[in-house]
Amino acid sequence: MLRITDAGTGEPTDVRPGLTRIHAHVARADTSALRVLLVADVLARALELGGTPVVMVADPPAALRARADALGIRRAETDTLGGGRILHVLGPEDPVVDGIRVEVAPAGGPADSAESAGSSSAVRLALLAHPRSSPVDLGGGALTEAQETLARWRKTVALWANHPSKPIPEHVRQELRAAWEDDLDLPAVLDVLRRLEGADDVPDGARFESYAYADRLLGLELTREIGAWA
Q1: Collapsed DSSP state (helix, strand, coil) of residue 4
Q2: Helix intervals (H) in 161-227
Q3: Rounded distance, CA 181 to CA 58, Å?
Q4: Quick one: what percent of the chain has pLDDT higher than 70?
């Protein structure tokens, strides 16, 4: 079961199964707002992997919607009415709202140029690689490192796909779920993948299935190059 920290109380809250409405509060088109939408997207994915139905609610400006589309962030409904539990995803400077609040620290840097150059997945990975409570600077080598990691993982996953499929090792599945169910700890999920990348004692077919499973949460298109590397 997913346990999330409520920024309003500072206390962990269990998100029990049942219809959940995720309200992403975004009014600008900057990278901080993009990060809010991304966290909401991954939060929805985590809940759905646990069998919880989710409705995403947001009304982003057109420019932000275009950036979100490039990052593979799901489109949301604009109607805030409806039943179910509500989780609010917002930045630290956004107006206080009643209910469970998932707070996302600011992000900045030259993300716009990376997205326009077709490196939107690198922006997504660079944002996911930091705890959501920590500010992110996409300058320097952050985007280059993310792009290199994506290129390596996509090629490796494609090569693993050439081997007979094997079940995800139970300890790997448990590590992945324990990471994302612990306050949506995405850096810990990525750490599991990094360890698995060099785990020669795990069959390639099992490593492929593990990466594909984790990508249902991360949304990095890690299987997109299957067939390109025979």
Answers
A1: strand
A2: 170-181, 186-197, 204-218
A3: 23
A4: 95
Mean pLDDT of the chain: 92
pLDDT at position 116 over 50 = no
Residue 73 φ/ψ region, left for φ over 0, alpha for ψ in the -120 to 50 degree band, beta for the rest: beta
Long-range (24+ apart) CB contacts under 8 A made by 47-51 are: 47/2, 47/15, 47/20, 49/180, 49/216, 49/217, 50/1, 50/2, 50/17, 50/181, 51/17
Which pLDDT does position 168 carry in this prediction? 97
Number of H helices, E strands in the chain: 8, 8
Alpha carbon distance 166, 202 (integer Å)? 10
pTM over 0.90: yes
Instruction: At 192, list the tokens.
Output: 């599991």
Q: What is the mean pLDDT of residues 46-66?
A: 94
Neighbours of 124 (CB within 10 A): 25
Tell me the C-alpha distance between 33 and 171, whole Å. Answer: 35
**How far is the C-alpha of 191 from the C-alpha of 110, rounded, in Å?**
25
Distance of alpha carbon 55 from the chain centroid: 16
Whole-angstrom CA distances from 120 to 67, 141, 143, 204 are 8, 15, 10, 28
CB 189 within 8 A of CB 42: no
C-alpha distances in Å from residue 191, one per residue of 111, 149, 153, 179, 212: 23, 12, 13, 9, 15
Dump pLDDT digits (tens) for 62-114: 999 999 999 999 999 987 777 889 999 999 888 878 889 999 999 987 655 44
